[in-house]
Automatic annotation (TrEMBL):
Protein name as annotated: DUF2339 domain-containing protein
UniProt keyword GTP-binding present: no
Coiled coil: 2-36
Keyword Membrane: yes
Keywords: Coiled coil, Membrane, Transmembrane, Transmembrane helix
Membrane-crossing segments per the record: 85-106, 118-137, 149-171, 177-197, 202-218, 224-243, 250-269, 275-296, 303-322, 328-346, 353-372, 378-397, 404-420, 432-448, 460-478, 490-509, 516-537, 543-565, 585-606, 612-632, 644-662, 668-689
InterPro entries noted in UniProt: DUF2339_TM
Length: 693
């Protein structure tokens, strides 16, 4: 018993020691994880007990638990508040105000003659240097709140220095031209250096814009064009050092835009040495391509940057056209550069950029054909084709700004083509271009629809773009009709085409025609029908076209009414969901059909195809037939409005028969008419009696 008691006491002591060991671990609140595993809590207790006893037995197997590694939470991106944006923009605004104030102050001093021109220029330079010193002292304080202000001060000193140099050399003539040139170059070097070290894109834009004022000083000094162009190229090339280092894309676009504009302005001032301008355009565009690819990053605004590359290069092609002499050489070189660039990009797998540069190569080729002046009519085809390609590329890239720009340009070209060019002669480039533009519109619509997934609300592409296509189509048809068919001003051929298009829209799916086109065509059909009611004074072939159009329109109305009445295809697929009064719709359709047939009868009288007496009798029969059909339809479907309309037309027909026809018709015609009317009346009475039963 004593031995068993001692054993139990020993076991209890071991368990107490194990519990103490566990308590110490909990107090330390540290978990030691080795080799990505952790031991089970009970195993640790057993190990501790075994160590206290000095037991040499093997320790039990450990139970391994996988370590759960929590993913570090990425902090949300900080977005500037409105107040922060205002604070960021205020220094720049006030610096601009300060510069304007200085300029107006100098103007005021000049007006009152307080200082001489030399003193004014010296004071302006002191202000520029003072801003540099102030910015340097503020930087030494190393306050984060002053960083934006220091950048603005550096930029303001640069702008004041450049403007002062230009004023001293050109306006006041107190600085020698070569001295002014040296000072301007020093300021430009200073601007490039601060742009590099300050890493501020707004400052870079400011520097490049102000630096491009120097070419006008050089032009004033009557420097050689080569030197001026060389300066623009060197300035643009030097700024690439800054753009590449700090990936300043917007500054690159602004620098390129103002550089090519500077080239164009300088050329317009002297118009000589065209080849040097061509070389400058090519070099600038090649540098743009290379640097753009260097700093390009596929991100949120990828489509915008791709669109900017395409638009700026397209602008370059346009500006080259303003230099008429041998511009085709520049287009050939640019086409080769674009093609080589596309081949190089294709090896890197950048398919979207290949599309951009490949399209530019194609446009450069088109411009080369225009520059060769192979045909004066070639531009009518190539210009819409170029804008069409630009729209297709914009849709593929998803570049909204590019889509808007090229769509507006495309619309302007189409409008100009419609207003200026005609469809005659039949075999002409102008006529062909009408058809090509229609194909462009259809291809754009099909391509956009192919990329779209679905639609919910009314959109421009789904619902309004089909209307634009049909509108352009009918403008072409009306022009074609007026040239080759209609001589009296009424487009009968176009009216027939309208019927075909309207019926086609009824059977085509909504995905193709949209939600609004059908209603637009129906309204147009109704307006044309109203124009068919009066008699048309036509002759020749148009007499037959007139009658055919009237009969076709009457048949179309009858067919639509029959489908609605019998609840056929159109009714079940489309009209049922419109929630309109079918009774009133049928009444209007019957009335419209009657009026159209009346118009046909009046036209037959004018054209002399049928005698007047026969037409009078036919009109009376038409009234009785209309009343009969209306009353018969109302008995089958319980249509109250149609029934009232039928009785009304029946009363009008009887009154016409008694008070008009009896006095105007001969005995033979009167007999035949009364026999026909009597038979129709008996048929009508029989139908009404059946409905009562």
């Amino acid at each position: 018993m004593d031995q068993e008691t001692e054993k139990r006491i020993a076991r209890l002591e071991e368990e107490v020691r194990a519990l103490r060991f566990e308590l110490n671990e909990l107090k330390q609140n540290k978990q030691v994880i080795e080799n990505g595993t952790s031991e089970n809590h009970l195993v640790k207790l057993n190990k501790a007990a075994a160590q206290e006893r000095g037991d040499k037995q093997e320790s039990p197997k450990t139970i391994l638990k996988p370590v759960v590694q929590e993913k570090p939470e990425t902090p949300p991106k900080k977005s500037r508040s409105f107040e922060e944006m205002v604070v960021w923009a205020l220094p720049k605004i006030f610096m601009l105000i300060l510069v304007l104030g200085v300029l107006w102050g100098l103007k005021l001093i000049s007006d009152y003659g307080l200082f001489s021109n030399t003193i004014k220029i010296i004071l302006a330079y002191f202000l520029s240097i003072g801003l540099i010193i102030t910015a340097t002292l503020m930087e030494k304080r190393k306050q984060d709140s002053s960083q934006v202000l220091t950048v603005v001060l550096y930029g303001g000193s640069f702008m004041i220095g450049i403007l002062t140099t230009a004023a001293g050399a050109i306006l006041y003539e107190v600085i020698g031209l070569y001295v002014a040139l040296f000072i301007a170059i020093l300021y430009i070097a200073y601007g490039i250096i601060i742009s590099y070290f300050k890493k501020n894109e707004v400052l870079s834009v400011f520097i490049i814009f102000t630096s491009l004022l120097l070419p006008y000083l050089l032009e004033y000094m009557e420097f050689n064009n080569v030197i001026i162009l060389l300066y623009v190229l060197l300035l643009f090339g030097a700024m690439q050092w800054v753009f590449i280092k700090h990936r300043q894309r917007v500054a690159l676009y602004v620098a390129y835009f103002f550089s090519i504009i500077a080239l164009q302005i300088i050329y317009s001032l002297n118009e000589q040495g065209e080849v040097y301008y061509f070389i400058s355009y090519v070099i600038l565009n090649a540098v743009l391509l290379a640097v753009w690819l260097k700093i390009f990053e596929a991100g949120k605004f990828r489509a915008l940057h791709e669109g900017m590359l395409f638009s700026l290069s397209g602008l370059t092609l346009l500006l080259i056209h303003f230099i008429p002499e041998d511009s085709f050489i520049a287009f050939i070189v640019l086409a080769i550069i674009y093609g080589s660039f596309a081949f190089y990009i294709n090896k890197r797998g950048e398919k979207r950029i290949v599309d951009v540069v490949g399209t530019l190569a194609l446009l450069a080729f088109f411009n080369m054909l225009l520059a060769l002046e192979l045909s004066p009519e070639l531009g009518n085809i190539l210009l819409p084709l170029s804008t069409f390609i630009g729209i297709m590329l914009a849709v593929r890239l998803g570049a909204m700004l590019m889509k808007i720009t090229y769509s507006l340009l495309f619309m302007i070209l189409i409008l100009g083509h419609i207003l200026i060019n005609d469809v005659e002669p039949f075999w002409s480039v102008e006529h062909l271009n009408y058809l090509l533009i229609l194909i462009y519109l259809v291809v754009i619509f099909a391509y956009i629809k192919g990329k779209s997934i679905g639609k919910s609300a009314i959109t421009f592409v789904d619902d309004f773009y089909p209307i634009i296509i049909v509108l352009y189509f009918f403008i072409y048809i009306v022009k074609f009709d007026g040239t080759y068919f209609s001589e009296y001003g009424f487009p009968y051929f176009s009216c027939l085409v309208l019927v075909i298009v309207m019926l086609g829209s009824f059977f085509l799916p909504e995905r193709i025609v949209g939600r609004i086109l059908r209603y637009v065509l129906i309204v147009t059909f109704g307006i044309v029908t109203l124009n068919l009611l009066p008699t048309h004074y036509v002759d020749g072939m148009e007499m037959w076209l007139n009658l055919i159009v009237r009969i076709v329109y009457a048949c179309v109305i009858i067919g639509i009414l029959s489908d609605v009445y019998e609840e056929g295809y159109l009714y079940n697929k489309w009209i049922r969901g419109l929630k309109i009064n079918i009774d009133g719709l049928l009444m209007l359709g019957i009335l419209g059909t009657m009026f159209v047939i009346y118009g046909v009868l009046n036209q037959l009288i004018y054209d002399g195809y049928i005698d007047y007496i026969a037409i009078v009798a036919t009109k009376t029969i038409l009234l009785f037939v209309t009343a009969t059909i209306s009353l018969w339809m109302s008995t089958k479907r319980k249509l109250k409005i149609v029934r009232v309309f039928g009785y009304t037309i029946l009363g009008v027909a009887i009154c016409k028969l008694i008070f008009i026809d009896l006095g105007n018709l001969s005995l033979l015609v009167r007999a035949l008419l009364f026999i026909a009317v009597g038979g129709i009346g008996l048929l009508l009475s029989n139908q009404l009696l059946k409905s009562k039963k």
